[in-house]
Amino acid sequence: MRAKFIEEKTVKALMYLSTAIVALAVVSILWTILSKGWGAMSWDMISKLPGGGFYIGKEGGFLNAIVGSLYIVGTSAVLGLLVSIPVVFYLNVYLRKSSRLGYAARLACDVLFGIPSIVYGAFGFALMIYFGMRASLGGGIVVVTLLIIPIFIRSMDEAARDFPREILDTAYSLGATRLQTIRVVLRQIAPGIATATLLSIGRAIGDAAGVMFTAGYTDSIPTSLSQPAATLPLAVFFQMTSPIKEVQNRAYAAAMVLTLIILVLSIGGRLIMNRFSKNKLS
Amino acid sequence: MIFRPDHKFTHGAETSKMQIEGLNVHIAGQHILKEVNLIIPDKRITCVIGPSGCGKSTLLRSMNRLIDSVEGAHIEGKILIGEVNLIDSGEHLTELRRRIGLVSQKPCPLPMSIFENVAYGCQIHGIRNRRKLKMVVRHYLEAVGLWDEVCERLNAPATSLSLGQQQRLCLARSLAVEPQFILADEATSALDPIASRNVEELFVKLKNDYSIIMVTHTLRQARRIADYVVFMYLGELVEAGLASEVFDNPQHELTKKYLSGAFS
Amino acid sequence: MKSLCIFKDRAAGGVMFFLTIASILVVGAMAVGLVVKSMPLLESRPLSELLFSSEWKPLRGEFGFFPFLAGTLWVTGIAIVLALPVSLLTAIYLVEYARRRVKSYVFPMLDILAGLPSVIYGVWGVLLIVPLAGYTLLTGGIVLGVMILPLLVSLLVEIFSAVPSSLRDASASLGATQWQSIKKVVLRKTSPGILAAVVLAISRALGETIAVLMVCGNLPEVPHSMMEAGYPLPALIANNYGEMLSLPLYEAALMFAALILFVVILLFNVTSRVILYRVEKKFAL
After folding, report:
1. Contact flag A233-C210 (C-beta cutoff 8 Å)
2. Roughly what angle, to the nearest 10 degrees, separates helices C2-44 and A137-161?
3. How confident is the model at residue A100, as a pLDDT?
4. What are the extents of the domains in chain B?
5. Residues in Cβ contact with B121 at an 8 Å cutoff, skipping those fewer than 6 apart
6. What is the DSSP letter of B21?
7. What is the interface pTM, i.e. ipTM, of the complex?
8. What is the pTM of this model?
9. Cβ-based contacts of C119 with chain A (< 8 Å)
10. In contact, B176 and B110? CB cutoff 8 Å
């Protein structure tokens, strides 16, 4: 009979251990990146373009990557919202709960969410070759938009599903058409849209495999959609593999910038969620 | 008199008297139960009545410490079973819980077959012998009058039964670990009238061997089966005593009003 | 006035219907595109040779994918073996035992872990794990294992929370210890969901590219132990695509690699999602 108490205690100890491992992983990653990055960080890094001889350790920064990432992420976030808000609205207002189309669309989104970005990248690049395009800002934007649309739809849909039907009925009873309820619905799921946007931006800014072929890499800031664009994750990746110490240091600095952006996004998302769902934790 | 098959969990004499002294329960800062003192008589049906929100369910959930799983719940006072205080029982808690069966409002079969549902408790307490388990299962299914209905499909999932059958199955499951107390939280409120009457009759039969504490919303049910009645209001125990006395000659003004249907 | 409103309502409905259909069609378009692109290779070699030959010599026109398949299986296997017990125990702890305060620390941590980009995990792996275990499959597995932790934990937490508390109460009132209730009731009730979560995590691990590419060593040979270097499929694509495309069949070969990933992950995803939907439905009484 004692056995079950011993088992209970053992399992509980293992649970503490596992949770500690999770915490340790977070702390160790953040510590590694931030401490390495802090040592390599300087104002030049984030304010200057790569100068001559940059890749053999001469001066310059990775402003090109920062700006390139912002271009790609900003544009795809806007495009993503434009596509996904109508889809979510359609799924939740126009379609019935038991609709087959709704089921198929949700399944498709979940599946698209699971497809790795390298496949998006390869597929996108193959299309671009087919149309005779070269790696460019425009190509990167298209692929990243495709990549984040499922995230947008999934997380907004989740927020919209909890949407109280009575509000819709009230709007209908006032003579509103389905389309006219969009303002009510949007206001109601605004926190959901905000968290979805932060999530998508986080995914978009961190993605390397998708933009690797499609956006390419360059030392300058692109001035049109057809020019290639550098991105932060690729700046980390390419410079990390360099044998020269100074160049590696830049990789660490870029990694720190990327990590800080992600931290801000995820803390921001948490705050929004806590604010709007006080009693929910998960 | 219900025959008990020869599997004994406990050694020595067990008392089936429960004594509650100065019980206070706070949940998230709210004072839910206030200084409750109560003695649960041996082998009788005690009905707890009162308007909703009066703390009946909390009282019941304190008696087997399921209140612990409520976030922010704090409990003080004494709930004595024999010499042991349930409130600070430490490792004995699971053993004490075995001695206090629970039948919940909605029947709640575990995600297993009918057989396993009844055998589950015994397995938890270390009985592995297949033959013995079969005997126990049959015995308690018979005790709740379910055996004839399910003996052909013991391996079917418990959820395939009707609600009334499920509730009796849950009762059999509780009985199979040989409790002395049975806590019933509005155990018939989710059932149709016939199933409800079946369960009620079962309780009357069971009181020969068990002390039954029952929370009920329907006064008529309490009148039908209660030996003792406890009336609660806003977390306080207002009146307790023999059913005949409380129903026919209530001492307290609130009890009178409640029984006459002035509020519910 | 009113008829205009109704017309707008219909028109918007049409546009939204089109967008919804389009998002479903993307899946199909991808499948078709990848198949068409890898057709030249599929036509010239039998499928069995492509999948099971270990000779990868593009210059001589030999395309055996087995080293990459083996590499992918190794890192994914190691990752799951490491991550599953940790995430199961963590999820159980968070749902069944942890106080609100603990949760309010652990959940944001999981958020951060889930949000960190692949390349950051790669840098962490190179700086911290490679010095211990070298550029090997084991390192890849460890990094990948940490990467899928947040996904697994959050899926499992969702699944466990969906189990009605009345079941736990029923089990506890029979005198079961908390762990006994979890083992015999909660885990049992959720086993299809757990399986689906694992499959989903596997498919996530299969497609991870940059982090694995940075720590695995990238040697196109069949590995024999986890202390050797390996070359998972996504790394193959990332490392070589865009170069040497003039080589006959090389592009088709890389597209075939993407196709393999796509098909496997598609199958895994559809199965596990369908199971998860069912589980959700069953609990939402």
Report:
1. yes
2. 120
3. 85
4. 18-259
5. B98, B173, B174, B176, B177, C174, C175, C176
6. E
7. 0.90
8. 0.87
9. 206, 208, 233, 236-237, 255, 258
10. no
